[in-house]
Amino acid sequence: MVFRSGRGPGTIPGVFLDGDLLERVERFRYLGHIVTKGFVNDEDVERERRALAVRCNMLARRFAKCSDQVKVTLFRVSIHVNFG
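The line above is the sequence of Jg19112 protein; the predicted structure tokens follow.
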């Protein structure tokens, strides 16, 4: 991946490693985060949004038969556990 400042030359020469030309990509995953050549977070935010929706739907199904009081209690406990 090549990050450009907008001021550099129009063409950027290829990069070789041990005689092999490295492939240029528009995006890649680094430490779980999607990095794009334009530094835009849209793909990563959408991936996280979908993951959150999946987890919320799983919890909604798992506790669907619980009373509202049980759901409120579980919610309050999870806040204390996660945010102290």
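Note on the example: The chain has a mean pLDDT of 82. Helices lie at 42-62, 68-83.
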